[in-house]
Amino acid sequence: MSTRHADAHTTLWPHLGLTVIDGDRTELDLAGLFGRTAPVVLEIGFGMGDATAAMAAADPDRDFLGVEVHTPGIGNLLALVGERGLTNVRVAHGDAMELVHRIPAEALDAVHVFFPDPWPKARHHKRRLIRPGNVALLRERLRPGGVLHCATDWPHYAEAMAETLDADPGLRRLPATPHARPETKFERRGAEAGRPIADLRYERS
């Protein structure tokens, strides 16, 4: 991490950070984590955190729980939180689905999965985040009417995502909404490489 990231991590992690421990199934107290009762958005794989910080700043009535394995990204998001004085962001380090197991059923207002690793090789498809078992678990954590929003710049993964999400009996596809989220660094890279951006939004029925 850069000095800026490391300083933010040292200062803010003790108050805003959560370490995900594999196999821990202790139910997570979201109201206790944020210090209030408010709708919660789970942000899976936030990268460098720019989009997460932007959404949290624009939507102070909701709380944002971001989970990431990339430590420089965690440091950057913490730095942004400190610089912008955000109080509605918490940051988790570790495996996202391990964290999801700890979240109570129907506790989330939304789940964001923006530009996850596409694992383009066929033998690696089993590692993709958006697959039936994971989707069912994410859907169970959404409140009725809650939204699962996925985005990718890999057309084959977009097709696989849509097929998996359409097949889930508890999800209903929503119309695409332009500008429903800030642009991410990965999105810019994909657009610059000429890859189309696919946004898939589904509501828990």
From TrEMBL:
Residues 169-205 are annotated as: Disordered. Substrate binds at residues 121, 153, 184-187. Residues 180-205 have a biased composition (Basic and acidic residues). InterPro entries: SAM-dependent_MTases_sf, tRNA_(Gua-N-7)_MeTrfase_Trmb, tRNA_methyltr_TrmB_bact. Pathway: tRNA modification; N(7)-methylguanine-tRNA biosynthesis. The keyword tRNA processing applies. Transmembrane segments: none annotated. Keywords: Methyltransferase, S-adenosyl-L-methionine, Transferase, tRNA processing. It comes from the Bacteria. It is an enzyme of class 2 (transferase). S-adenosyl-L-methionine binds at residues 43, 68, 95, 117. It catalyses: guanosine(46) in tRNA + S-adenosyl-L-methionine = N(7)-methylguanosine(46) in tRNA + S-adenosyl-L-homocysteine. GO terms for cellular component: tRNA methyltransferase complex. The keyword Nucleus does not apply. GO terms for molecular function: tRNA (guanine(46)-N7)-methyltransferase activity. Pfam families: Methyltransf_4 (PF02390). Its EC number is 2.1.1.33. Belongs to the class I-like SAM-binding methyltransferase superfamily. TrmB family. Catalyzes the formation of N(7)-methylguanine at position 46 (m7G46) in tRNA. This is tRNA (guanine-N(7)-)-methyltransferase. It comes from Actinoplanes missouriensis (strain ATCC 14538 / DSM 43046 / CBS 188.64 / JCM 3121 / NBRC 102363 / NCIMB 12654 / NRRL B-3342 / UNCC 431).
